[in-house]
Amino acid sequence: MTEDEKGLERLLALMFQAHPWHGIPAGEDAPGTVNAYIEIVPTDAVKYELDKASGHLRLDRPQRFSSFPPTLYGFIPQTFCGDRVAELCLSCVGGDQQIRGDGDPMDICVLTERPAAHANFLVRAKPVGGLRMVDGNEADDKIIAVLEKDVSYGHIEDISEAPKGLIDRLQHYFLTYKQLPQESPRRVEIADVYDRDAACETIRRSLEDYHARYGAPEQRVNELRRLLKG
Fold this sequence. Notes:
- The strands form two sheets. Strands 1-4-6-9-7 form a five-stranded mixed β-barrel. A two-stranded antiparallel ribbon has the order 2-3.
- The longest helix has 19 residues, at 196-214.
- A hairpin with a 6-residue loop joins strand 2 and strand 3.
- It is 29% helix and 26% strand.
- It is of the alpha+beta class and 230 residues long.
- It has one domain (29-218): Inorganic pyrophosphatase (Inorganic Pyrophosphatase), CATH 3.90.80.
- The relative contact order is 0.18.
- It starts with a helix and ends with a helix.
C-alpha cells in the first residue's frame, strides 16, 4: 500500500464509522481468534439484527416465546455463508439433500461470565466448536467461542471442555426459538456438534466465501481512489 493509500485509509477511518460486516476485519489471527460483532445479549426480549445496507442495528422481531439467547450472539465480520460453507455442511449431512449457504455472515455465540447491558459492540473471541445447523435447506452454522481472557471460560480450548448443560441449552434455543408449539415437523435441525478444528475450518471457508462474493477487502481503498479520480 502506497503512502497516499495509507493516508486515504486513515482519513476514512477518522471521518466515518466502519460498517460492522464489511468495514471491520475478522482479525489478524482468524480463524484461531476472531473479532465478533454482538447483535443480541441474553437479556434481550427482542431480536436485533444488523441492517446489511446501512450497518445499523435494527429490531428484527420480538422474541415470540419465553426463550432467551443463552450467550452473547452475533457474527464474524467479513465472512459469508456461501458455496464453500454449504459444501462442508453437505459433506457432514450426507444424502441427496440440496443445501446452500444462508447468505449471511457466519454466526457466533460467545461464552462469558460477565453480563452485557446491550448489544452493538465488538469482542475478541476464541472459537472452540460449533453447531452444524440446517435451517430448511440452508447451512446456518453457529460457531461457539469463548470471550478472550474471560475468567470463567477463557481457558477453554475445545467444546469438550465447555459445560455440557450450556451447550445443551444452546442447542435447545436454536431448535425452538422459531418453532410454534403446534408446528410439526421441525424445519431446523442440528446435524453435528463439532470441535475447535472443525470450527476453524468452517470459519476459513466462510472467509473464502466472503472474498468470492465481495472481493478482497484490502482492495477497496484502491477502488475508492479510482472512483474519486474518475
